[in-house]
Amino acid sequence: MLLFVDYEVPHYDLYAGSRTNFMYLEMLAGMGLEVKFLPGDFRRVEPYSSELNKLGIETLDGEWYRENWQSWLSENGKKIEYVFFHKPGPASQFLPAVKRCTNAAIIYQCHDLHYLRLRRKAELENDEETLKESKLLEKKEDYIFANSDVLLTFSELEEELIKTKFPYKKVFTVPLFFYEELSEPDRDFSKRHDLLYVGSCSHTPNHDAITWFCEEVFPIIHEQNPEIALNVVGSDPPEDIQALQSENIRILGRVSEEELQSLYANVRMMVVPLRFGAGVKGKVIESLSNGLPLVSTTIGLEGIKGIEHLVTAQDHPEGFASDVMTLYWDHDRLRDLSRRGQEFVEDNFTVRGTSELMTSILATAKDEAA
């Protein structure tokens, strides 16, 4: 049995981290493992909980589990071979009881180094309180790392940071997203128009990215190319983000999967103007998988091995705007980058490759726990 723990059932159509977790849950169940999902809030949320149940995954939700989860762990401890933790909050909440009640191999999947994301935000905004918060979070993450048998990260950069602090731990870089096969898009970019940004607006790195791009970068683009528009897709746009709406800036909020796929098929480029954050950015992998070229900051590309052959990072408004405008009108280069982007995903982000890697990781975790 494998117990998969996160703070809530994956809202796979809202957040990149949830989309990742759903992909991993689907893959683990497909590998023949008996998977149980423990949401830290113990809530049953539809349609998400039922989607897991359809995969054969039992969800440990509801009031009985809220009151009796430790008893359940004690009763089932001998059956649990692996516990797959995600994110500092639920990991630190359940880890002590898991170690007390089971002999399971403990795997911690680091979606990103939370302390690093907060530290970068503090440095950008010169915020002492956020810096203090990042230091507390670093201690919590270090506790989880020290008490796990295997550590997973999506970012090669973060793998090196973790290995520096915990040289005796087994650390693997694993794919953030992975795909069975990719659909070939229409690569006639002369028929496409406008720009796209995708990211939950309530997530502070996305909030900052949207604001910075709209206030510092897009005016440069609009002055030279007034016909170009920006589409911003992301759940929960706050009032200040909604206030950016204009004739050429469309704050679309949450859209359906069909609407998002239509945008991927009809816009000309993705922009990823993140100024702080951590981990690998799902929007970058999704853009490449859809054959959509992009312009990004350094933070947006961080941790993805080989991405520098597809995208050159720009961290200043003038350089970012210049790269957008140059690429936007170069249809031949857009076609070439579209093909190469999908080839990159097919080489590095497949279900088959990730399943083979996970088989090795589970074996290593069991050996480390022995």
Structure, explained:
The relative contact order is 0.12. The strands form two sheets. A seven-stranded parallel sheet has the order 3-2-1-4-5-6-7, with helices on both faces. The chain has a five-stranded parallel sheet with strand order 10-9-8-11-12, with helices on both faces. With 370 residues, the chain is an alpha/beta fold. The mean pLDDT is 93. The chain is built from 15 helices and twelve strands. It is globular and about 65 Å long. It has helices at residues 16-30, 48-54, 63-76, 88-101, 114-125, 128-146, 156-165, 204-224, 239-242, 257-266, 282-289, 298-301, 317-328, 331-348, 351-369, and strands spanning 2-6, 35-39, 58-59, 82-86, 105-110, 150-153, 170-173, 195-198, 230-233, 249-253, 269-272, 294-296. The two termini are 17 Å apart.
Structural class from helices and strands?
A: alpha/beta
Instruction: Outline the low-pLDDT stretches.
Output: none
Number of helices: 15
Helix content: 40-55%
Span between termini: 17 Å
Spatial order of the strands forming the largest sheet: 3-2-1-4-5-6-7
Task: Quote the average pLDDT.
Answer: 93
Oligomer: single chain
| Strand fraction | 5-15%
Q: Could you spell the SSE succession in H and E letters?
A: EHEHEHEHEHHEHEEHEHEHEHEHHHH
Global outline: globular
Q: What radius of gyration results from the CA coordinates? A: 21 Å
The count of β-strands is 12
Largest beta-sheet details = 7 strands, parallel
